[in-house]
Automatic annotation (TrEMBL):
The gene is rcp1_1. PANTHER family: RESPONSE REGULATOR RCP1, RESPONSE REGULATOR RCP1-RELATED. Keywords: Phosphoprotein. This is Response regulator rcp1. Residues 6-131 form the Response regulatory domain. SUPFAM superfamilies: CheY-like (SSF52172). The keyword Phosphoprotein applies. Pfam families: Response_reg. It comes from the Bacteria. The lineage of its organism: Bacteria, Pseudomonadati, Pseudomonadota, Alphaproteobacteria, Hyphomicrobiales.
Length: 148
């Protein structure tokens, strides 16, 4: 039996979240995708707060930058400042191609930055590439345990 790979997608666009989920469901790997609609919910998930008390810590975070309430940059800064969360790899997956967003994301500790293509097939290809690299090539640290 394959060990599941847990991914947290922090994304406020339901269409992008659904497309990411559908693409990962077609994978040969066993990927479990959890979603948060903004940075506040994403942090609550990671910290196992409230309704997320029993959440499985992710092996990887896919993060949009342009989010309501707490945006992706603020979310990333808080994740990197938290000793229990700072080792979780974060892939920024966003529509922004602005150089300032790229530079700032890496400065805040993003592990990589990927611009979302608008074309459906290209988007699916990007998600498959992220999956292939992060789950078959890279050695990931163990996910932190809730309550640890």
């Amino acid at each position: 039996m394959k060990v599941p790979i847990h991914v947290l997608l922090v994304e406020d666009n339901p269409a992008d979240a659904d497309l990411t989920r559908e693409t990962l469901e077609m994978s040969k790997l066993h990927v479990i995708l959890s979603t948060a609609i903004d940075g506040v919910e994403g942090l609550r998930f990671l910290r196992c707060e409230g309704e997320f008390a029993n959440a499985q810590s992710p092996d990887l975070i896919l993060l949009d930058l342009n989010l309501p309430r707490l945006d992706g940059r603020q979310f990333l800064a808080q994740v990197r400042a938290d000793p229990k969360l700072c080792a979780i790899p974060v892939v920024v997956l966003t529509s922004s191609e602005a150089e300032k967003d790229i530079v700032q994301s890496y400065s805040l500790g993003a592990n990589c930055y990927v611009s979302k293509p608008v074309d459906l097939a290209a988007f699916q290809s990007i998600v498959r590439s992220i999956e292939g690299f992060w789950f078959t090539v890279v050695k990931l640290p163990p996910a932190p345990n809730c309550g640890a």
